Amino acid sequence: MVRMQRAQIGIAVVFIAGMFLNVVAVLIAYVHHAIYFENVKDLLITLLAVYSGPLAIVFAGVFAKRGVALRRPALTTFWFAVCVSIAWNLFLVGGSVGLVAAAFGNSAKEGAVEEFTSYLRTISSSATFMVSGALTYFFARGE
């Protein structure tokens, strides 16, 4: 068994790291002149929108549970939640790889921003089912 607070921190780190990797990809594309500053702003707003749901649950759960003793989750439940959280984030980071590739490639880059934005919105909304149950279990349930 793992303590609930450690489980919550572990899952929170997965989502924060995923968002960080996506932001780094956008900044790499900007530094290599693959996108304009206006594109950076638009992509960061998209990333914030994509991560706002999961991170709102995570942050609310962390702050709302202060002083409340929660039951310890089973180790398999924790690792399953970590794995689906990593998978959800890898789907999103996969799109970032395409954006970075456009930054270093010689192909036309005009459509890279629109494609990445569309990818983020489509994949995040389609894959939300993967993490919604785990986030609810670890952050929104009362004991």
Structure, described:
80% of the residues lie in helices and 0% in strands. It is an all-alpha fold and 143 residues long. The chain has a single domain, classed as Four Helix Bundle (Hemerythrin (Met), subunit A). Helix 1 packs antiparallel against helix 2, helix 1 runs parallel beside helix 3 and helix 2 runs parallel beside helix 4. The longest helix has 30 residues. The model has no long low-confidence stretch (mean pLDDT 86).
Layout of helices and strands:
Elements: H1 4-31, H2 37-64, H3 75-104, H4 112-140
Helix pairs in contact: 1-2, 1-3, 2-4, 3-4
Q: What is the gyration radius calculated from CA atoms?
A: 17 Å
Total of domains: 1
CATH class reads Mainly Alpha
Low-confidence sequence ranges: none
N-to-C span: 17 Å
The number of helical elements comes to 4
Structural class: mainly alpha
Estimate percent helicity: over 70%
Reported by name, the CATH topology is Four Helix Bundle (Hemerythrin (Met), subunit A)
> How many β-strands, per DSSP?
0
CATH level-two architecture: Up-down Bundle
Can you give the mean pLDDT?
86
Shape: elongated
Strand residue percentage: under 5%
Following the backbone from N to C, one meets helices and strands in this order, namely HHHH
Largest sheet: number of strands, sense, barrel closure: none
What can be said about this structure in brief?
By secondary structure, this protein is an all-alpha fold. The protein has helices at residues 4-31, 37-64, 75-104, 112-140.
Features of this protein?
mainly alpha, single chain, 80% helix, Four Helix Bundle (Hemerythrin (Met), subunit A), elongated, 143 residues, 4 helices
